[in-house]
Write a structure and sequence with these properties.
- The chain has a single domain, classed as Metalloproteases ("zincins"), catalytic domain (Collagenase (Catalytic Domain), 3-Layer(aba) Sandwich).
- The protein is 51% helix and 14% strand.
- The protein has five helices and three strands.
- α3 crosses α4 and α4 packs across α5.
- The protein is globular.
Length: 135
């Protein structure tokens, strides 16, 4: 697997910005990068979907604070970036924002309404803000 497009420092900055904008206060999120095979297996085991996905998020409520685990697949993000015609670094920020919002409880439809959902609009607003300030 190639090196992820996000450094640990950048991951902290992106997640921290989303948590601040959401007003969550203290939160503990772990971020794990997986190759396509392990991500497909996790998706199959967890959701019964036998395919690779770019992010899977689990909300883990802790006493008095938000928490969760994010699993990101740079291989899937790379394919998504190519399909959308955006740089990989931008797509990785998008995937990280998307996963963080899921960990905070946001949901979206799995059909064509996905990109019109409240979650998606919020995600894109955050991505634009992060990219405008250099992440």
């Amino acid at each position: 697997m190639r090196q992820p497009a996000l450094s640990p420092r950048l991951v902290r900055r992106v997640v921290g910005a989303v948590l601040d904008w959401e007003g969550t206060g203290e939160a503990a999120l772990s971020v794990t990068f997986l190759g396509a095979g392990p991500m497909r297996a996790l998706n199959r085991r967890t959701f019964g979907r036998d395919r690779v996905t770019d992010v899977i998020a689990f909300a883990l409520p802790h006493a008095g604070r938000q928490g969760g685990d994010l699993y990101l697949c740079p291989t899937a993000a790379r394919a998504g970036a190519a399909a959308e015609g955006v740089p990989l670094a931008e797509e990785m920020v998008r995937v990280l924002v998307h996963g963080t919002l899921h960990a905070l409880g946001y949901q979206h439809p799995e059909d064509h309404g996905r990109t019109r959902s409240r979650m998606w609009r919020r995600q894109e607003r955050y991505v634009r803000a992060l990219l405008a300030r250099g992440r």
